[in-house]
Amino acid sequence: MQTEVFSDLFPLLSTASPQTLECLLNIAVEHEYPSGRAVLMEDAWGNAVYFLISGWVKVRRTNGDNSVTIAILGRGDFFGEMAVLDESPRSTDVVALSPVKLLTVSRERFIQILFKDAQLHHRMLQLMVRRVRQINMRLQMRSSPPAVKLAHTLVSLNDNYGQESDQGKEIYYIPFKDLAEVAEISLDETTKIMEKLHERGWIKCVPTSQSIYVINFKQLENLANKF
């Protein structure tokens, strides 16, 4: 992978120097995981940062035999940085929703690079603050109607990971159970709302190709802002 492609794919690396990009590419290790495979396990010590080249993963928190999906990440995102930076066990699992290809950079090398490249360091802080703001937004929306919460989740996925297509932006056909847990609504509510959005022509669900197309983003965004 060329450094320009690497930088364009990952927003985290958009301000990194050419030397930093070259170094990361030289030390990164590529991995592939099939759908359903655990990429990271909760309570494992943070020994690497993960860069998602392709595919989709879910981040989940476990409590005994139960697990709840708290986030969905797609191509161009990264994870594992919190356990690396605070030198503590991971607090969540990460599981592949689809076949996944990713790069890993060891904790020691990643921290060395952060100290050498101030722009990358600053960019990481910006993106971590953005994640905190997203968590705060979800807390503010807890009393919102289910349709608004689900629309907000879909808008966020579209903004962060949507790929242009002739039918609108395309995102992965995320299992409704995971969508429900991220939006903090019931599975029954999620199923009904997704069917209604599909009927209205705001989205198009195509299970056979594992795709959801966001066709009328403006209407979906308007609904998401009614919290």
UniProtKB/TrEMBL annotation:
InterPro entries in UniProt: cNMP-bd_dom (IPR000595), cNMP-bd_dom_sf (IPR018490), Env_Response_Regulators (IPR050397), RmlC-like_jellyroll (IPR014710), WH-like_DNA-bd_sf (IPR036388), WH_DNA-bd_sf (IPR036390)
Pfam families, A to Z: cNMP_binding
Regions that span the bilayer: none
GO cellular component, one term: cytosol
An annotated Gene Ontology molecular function: DNA-binding transcription factor activity
Protein name, entry field: Putative transcriptional regulator, Crp/Fnr family
Domain Cyclic nucleotide-binding: 12-131
Superkingdom: Bacteria
Native source species: Nostoc azollae (strain 0708) (Anabaena azollae (strain 0708))
